[in-house]
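Researcher: Let's do a round of design. I'm pasting the structure tokens now; please hold your answer until I've finished.
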């Protein structure tokens, strides 16, 4: 664990209803140097607020993003089990997931279905869209408190189940998700990460994994709604897309779907309820080129609105959860703030 001066003065954040906590800074010729000097204050603010927007920094390219990540002195996450393809620029630094720009991405916590999920996300806007494309943020503890008690209790008791079918048409391929198409290596990964798998007669892979729907935040023990139940459920697909996929592959062959932890189907009205509660607790952040957004991935869910124009937002992931441990490690703990 790194040693950091926790007596550093707090940073001056702007708070505005409907917007994340914002730090305005002058353009930096050397963003990495800024990150090194601001590290203690920015990570402490992240512990308090769950997400912090840094506006004015003037990030220019993926090299700037990688340099900032390194200066925060947190361990990068090597993505596995991606649900959609993305390009890797450097350790921990990736393009946004390939997702149709005219389709929103529902609220979720990045890689919450993996055992090595990131605790820290950095989003950097290199090119803002001409219209739409805002990132939404929602406090996971507040969302949990607002859910119907019976529903929250069931998911907390049973967890949730994710099923995937790697059909090569929609979503990540086996190679994109596991980094290899070697069956022995894929099976070894699944075995080590509590994933059930089966190879279909046509050679495609199907998997299922049960995960917790509610976790305690490592910094303060708060219970957080932490999952991708709504986002990866069949009811979030556009109706015409869902109809095509079911006709083509059958209801069990969807690229991804979520279930109650006991394997029972999740009703459409439940998914609508989850998304409605998210909406009630969402703050939105329209992007400006050069912005940096830091997100506590456990404390805060995020989404992406539909957009038009050349939107380029790079994401960096860090502070991995350790498979086999009883609880995750927060970015602040990793950096020595807690």
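Researcher: That's everything. Go ahead.
Model: Designed sequence:
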């Amino acid at each position: 664990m790194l040693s950091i001066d926790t007596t550093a003065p707090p940073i001056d954040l702007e708070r505005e209803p409907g917007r994340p906590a914002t730090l305005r800074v002058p353009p930096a010729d050397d963003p990495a140097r800024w990150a090194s000097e601001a590290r203690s204050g920015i990570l402490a603010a992240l512990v308090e607020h769950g997400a912090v927007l840094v506006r004015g920094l003037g990030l220019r390219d993926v090299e700037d993003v990688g340099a900032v990540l390194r200066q925060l002195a947190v361990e990068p996450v090597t993505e596995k089990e991606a649900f959609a393809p993305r390009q890797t620029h450097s350790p921990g630094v990736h393009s946004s997931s390939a997702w149709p720009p005219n389709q929103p991405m529902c609220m979720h916590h990045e890689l919450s279905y993996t055992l090595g999920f990131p605790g820290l996300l950095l989003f950097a806007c290199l090119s803002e869209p001409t219209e739409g494309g805002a990132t939404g943020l929602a406090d996971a503890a507040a969302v949990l408190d607002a859910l119907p008690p019976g529903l929250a209790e069931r998911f907390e008791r049973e967890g949730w189940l994710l099923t995937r079918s790697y059909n090569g048409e929609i979503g990540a391929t086996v190679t994109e998700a596991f980094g290899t198409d070697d069956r022995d290596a894929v099976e070894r990964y699944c075995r080590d990460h509590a994933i059930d798998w089966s190879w279909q007669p046509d050679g495609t892979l199907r998997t299922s994994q049960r995960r917790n729907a509610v976790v305690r935040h490592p910094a303060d023990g708060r219970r957080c709604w932490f999952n991708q139940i709504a986002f990866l459920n069949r009811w979030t697909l556009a109706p015409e897309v869902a109809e095509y996929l079911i006709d083509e592959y059958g209801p069990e062959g969807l690229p991804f779907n979520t279930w109650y932890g006991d394997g029972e189907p999740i009703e459409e009205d439940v998914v609508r309820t989850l998304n409605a509660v998210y909406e009630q607790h969402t703050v939105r952040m329209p992007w400006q080129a050069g912005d940096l957004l830091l997100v506590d991935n456990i404390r805060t869910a995020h989404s992406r609105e539909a957009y038009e124009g050349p939107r380029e937002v790079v994401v960096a992931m860090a502070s991995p959860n350790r498979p086999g441990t009883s609880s995750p490690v927060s970015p602040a703990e990793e950096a020595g703030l807690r």
